[in-house]
């Protein structure tokens, strides 16, 4: 079964995954969708982390460290960022983190990931909006393509202007569209950074 949801707070995501396991659906993969497999309904403890690795060896050492401590790796890969663990033994601690600061660090890593994604878009923004791309992006008058529109007067002008305005606005929005992912990534980075600061202060997990 696949489910699509989005969480900003890890504690809420963990609670939802535990509720799914209690209903008989255990997490087995995470990409755009959460992938679940049938399991015996059970109350369990699931914890989430966020880490990316440059080398496979580092990733497998990370997984082995937790599994040696009694936490089974449920989902995540070397470059996925999101990592999920299932508590296997009652003797294990209730968390995969030793203190508040290390628990909060996952929000900082998320913030950095979104910030790097935004930075990676900057060269595209320069090409798309920079010198040589034309001034049409910043001059709404050029969104109108009716020949001689701005030389018309009276009723002829207003008729042509009002007729083309919906199309012109569509062109304007289209030209500004590449800014959307950049602003979205920056917004996500800012949200994660605020969650990090709150987590350090013990306001959320």
Describe this structure as you would to a colleague.
- By secondary structure, this protein is an alpha+beta fold.
- Helix content is 49%, strand content 15%.
- The protein is built from five helices and six strands, in the order E-H-E-E-E-H-E-E-H-H-H.
- The chain has helices at 10-22, 56-68, 100-129, 154-176, 179-200, and strands spanning 2-3, 25-30, 34-38, 46-51, 71-75, 81-87.
- The strands form two sheets. A three-stranded antiparallel β-sheet has the order 1-3-2.
- A hairpin with a 5-residue loop joins strand 5 and strand 6.
- The chain is elongated and about 85 Å long.
- The two termini are 28 Å apart.
- The mean pLDDT is 88.
Structural features:
about 200 residues, alpha+beta, three-stranded antiparallel beta sheet, 5 helices, 6 strands, about 50% helix
Detail the topology: elements first, then pairings:
Blueprint: E1 2-3, H1 10-22, E2 25-30, E3 34-38, E4 46-51, H2 56-68, E5 71-75, E6 81-87, H3 100-129, H4 154-176, H5 179-200
Antiparallel strand pairs: 1-3, 2-3, 4-6, 5-6
Measured on Cα atoms, how large is the radius of gyration?
25 Å
Distance between the termini: 28 Å
Q: What level of helicity do the residues show?
A: 40-55%
Shape call: elongated
Query: Hey, roughly how much beta strand do the residues contain?
Result: 15-25%
SS elements, strand count: 6
The oligomerization state is single chain
Unreliably modeled segments: none
Please work out how many helical segments DSSP would assign: 5
- Integer average pLDDT: 88
Strand order of the biggest β-sheet = 1-3-2
List SSEs in N-to-C order. EHEEEHEEHHH
Major sheet: 3 strands, antiparallel
Look at the helices and sheets and give the structural class: alpha+beta
């Amino acid at each position: 079964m696949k489910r699509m949801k989005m969480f900003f707070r890890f504690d809420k995501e963990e609670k939802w995954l535990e509720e799914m396991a209690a209903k008989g659906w255990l997490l087995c993969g995470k990409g755009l969708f959460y992938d679940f497999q049938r399991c015996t309904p059970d109350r369990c403890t699931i914890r989430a982390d966020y880490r990316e690795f440059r080398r496979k060896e580092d990733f497998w050492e990370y997984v082995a460290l937790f599994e040696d401590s009694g936490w089974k790796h449920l989902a995540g890969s070397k470059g996925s960022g999101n990592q999920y663990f299932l508590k296997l033994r009652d003797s294990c601690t209730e968390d995969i983190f030793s203190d508040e600061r290390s628990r909060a660090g996952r929000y900082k890593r998320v913030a950095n990931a979104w910030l790097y994604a935004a930075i990676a878009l900057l060269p595209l923004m320069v090409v798309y909006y920079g010198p040589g791309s034309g001034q049409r992006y910043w001059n709404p008058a050029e969104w109108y393509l009716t020949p001689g529109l701005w030389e018309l007067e009276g009723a002829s002008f207003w008729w042509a202007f009002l007729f083309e305005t919906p199309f012109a606005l569509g062109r304007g929005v289209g030209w500004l569209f590449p800014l959307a992912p950049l602003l979205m990534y920056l917004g996500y980075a800012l949200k994660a950074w605020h969650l990090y600061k709150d987590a350090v202060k013990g306001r959320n997990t």
